[in-house]
């Protein structure tokens, strides 16, 4: 019994009832246009005085006009907003944004017409039937009502028959609630089919997810390269300074210790700035935000932070490179230095950057350690990130052992990178 009353008068049923009344309110302008159209055919030129037949004719004229206006793309967001709030359907089953394509517009027009058509009838019944039903319920208690046209219409003009008006009026109210609940359930059932995503919406959603994934991958690469390099460089510099101090020699190279501490300070300050830029984009939620990432003009600071064992050679002027190429080349060198100083174990690391025609060549080389390093559980992401950065610019990157050394070689085209990010 509780379930029955909840289906008729529960919160979900009340919201769907309100949704239908909203449809009736939206239908009023179309009905008024219909009255203008059918008004000349009524006996006195006024459809309101022409009876129920002419009002239904105005209703029939207004429905196709409502369907036509629903073909505009923005009709779907309005309908989805109302249905999502009032129909009791899971929000994820609705499409987002304006209707795309003729099929989506046709489904939206079908929903809009169904909503407004059913809403107009049931909102009119909601306004007219309850007062009438209450008057029928009051027949046993009012001789004037029994003597009126209402009592004579129901043949309840006698007091002992008038008591039949009480259950009759209640049945009218229950019938109205049942019809409204059934109509609301019908709209809720049809809402996902008529307002749900179509092929064009699914394609747009897939493209959105791909773009978001690309942004997340880009930010992940930035964090990995920037923070990973900084931690490796700081660890190496701090370890070297500690070994000098622990040697206990009277002539300990305090200048080296001071230089190591300065490199640690510079590296951490630069990395904190880069980390703030990445986290700022994450907090703002802007997918197309531009990272304030360093370029090849910051190579000197990068090499100083990597330690004294790095030898960098620059061939030609790099000042005229496109911003995207300069930025990605810096990250490739940074990740290469991170791997090299981590595994070279004090050996010299040589790096060379030079322009060769319309390509920027990056080569980094360091001796292979006698004992292979312990493999990371996830296999590491640095070399994969280097390959991704080069591929995004249309270039190539390779890394691996070569004649007793570890060699990283990357080629980046400089003529097509200006527009990349």
Summarize the structure.
This protein is an alpha+beta fold and 421 residues long. The chain is 64% helix and 9% strand.
Q: By helix and strand content, what is the structural category?
A: alpha+beta
Q: Using the alpha-carbon principal axes, give the shape.
A: elongated
- Give the strand order, joined by hyphens, for the main sheet: 1-2-3-5-4
Count of helix runs: 14
Q: Uncertain runs with pLDDT below 50, 5 residues or more? A: 416-421
Count of all domains: 2
How far the N terminus sits from the C terminus, by CA atoms, comes to 64 Å
| C-alpha Rg (nearest Å) | 38 Å
Strand content: 5-15%
Number of strands: 5
How is the main sheet built? 5 strands, mixed
Q: What is the N-to-C order of secondary-structure elements (H for helix, E for strand)? A: HHHHHHHHHHHHEHEEHEE
Please give the CATH architecture of the largest domain. 2-Layer Sandwich
Mean pLDDT: 79
CATH topology grouping of the largest domain: Heat Shock Protein 90
Helix percentage:
55-70%
Q: Would you state the CATH class of the largest domain?
A: Alpha Beta
What does this structure look like?
With 421 residues, the chain is α+β, with helices and mostly antiparallel strands. The protein folds into 2 domains: 2-197, no CATH class; 205-413, Heat Shock Protein 90 (2-Layer Sandwich), CATH 3.30.565. 64% of the residues lie in helices and 9% in strands. It has helices at residues 2-9, 11-38, 52-69, 75-86, 101-137, 143-147, 149-153, 159-162, 165-195, 199-246, 254-284, 299-306, 323-344, 382-392, and strands at residues 310-315, 349-356, 359-367, 396-402, 405-413. β4 (396-402) and β5 (405-413) form a beta hairpin. α10 crosses α13, α11 packs across α12 and α12 (299-306) runs parallel beside α13. The radius of gyration is 38 Å and the shape is elongated. The two termini are 64 Å apart.
């Amino acid at each position: 019994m509780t379930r029955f009353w909840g289906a008729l008068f529960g919160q979900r049923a009340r919201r769907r009832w309100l949704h239908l009344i909203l449809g009736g309110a939206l239908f009023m302008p179309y009905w008024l246009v219909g009255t203008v159209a059918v008004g000349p055919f009524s006996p006195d030129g006024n459809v309101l005085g022409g009876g129920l037949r002419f009002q239904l004719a105005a209703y029939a004229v207004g429905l196709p006009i409502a369907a036509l206006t629903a073909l505009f793309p923005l009709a779907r967001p309005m309908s989805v907003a109302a249905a999502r709030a009032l129909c009791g359907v899971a929000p994820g089953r609705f499409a987002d944004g304006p209707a795309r394509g003729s099929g989506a517009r046709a489904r939206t027009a079908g929903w809009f017409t169904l909503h407004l058509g059913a809403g107009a009838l049931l909102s009119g019944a909601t306004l007219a039937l309850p007062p009438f039903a209450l008057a029928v319920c009051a027949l046993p208690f009012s001789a004037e009502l029994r003597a009126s046209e209402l009592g004579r219409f129901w043949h309840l003009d006698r007091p002992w028959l008038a008591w039949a008006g009480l259950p009759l009026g209640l049945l009218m109210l229950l019938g109205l609630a049942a019809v409204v609940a059934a109509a609301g359930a019908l709209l809720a059932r049809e809402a996902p089919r008529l307002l749900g995503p179509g092929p064009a919406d699914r394609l747009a959603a897939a493209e959105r997810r791909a773009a978001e994934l690309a942004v997340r991958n880009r930010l992940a690469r930035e964090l990995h390269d920037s923070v990973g390099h900084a931690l490796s460089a700081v660890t190496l510099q701090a370890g070297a300074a500690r070994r000098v101090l622990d040697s206990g020699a009277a002539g300990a190279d305090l200048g080296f210790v001071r230089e190591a501490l300065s490199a640690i300070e510079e590296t951490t300050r630069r990395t904190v700035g880069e980390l703030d830029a990445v986290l700022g984009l994450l907090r703002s939620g802007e997918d197309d935000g531009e990272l304030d990432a360093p370029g090849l003009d910051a190579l000197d600071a990068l090499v100083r932070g990597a330690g004294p064992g790095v030898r960098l050679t620059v061939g030609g002027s790099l000042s005229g490179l496109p911003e995207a190429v300069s930025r990605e080349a810096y990250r490739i060198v940074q990740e290469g230095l991170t791997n090299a100083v981590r595994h070279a174990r004090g050996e010299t690391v040589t790096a060379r950057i030079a322009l060769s025609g319309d390509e920027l060549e990056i080569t980094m080389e360091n001796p292979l350690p006698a004992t292979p390093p312990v493999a990371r559980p996830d296999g590491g992401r640095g070399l994969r990130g280097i390959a991704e950065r080069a591929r995004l610019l249309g270039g190539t990157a390779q890394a691996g052992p070569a004649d007793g050394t570890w060699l990283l070689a990357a080629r980046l085209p400089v003529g097509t990178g200006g527009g990349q990010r």
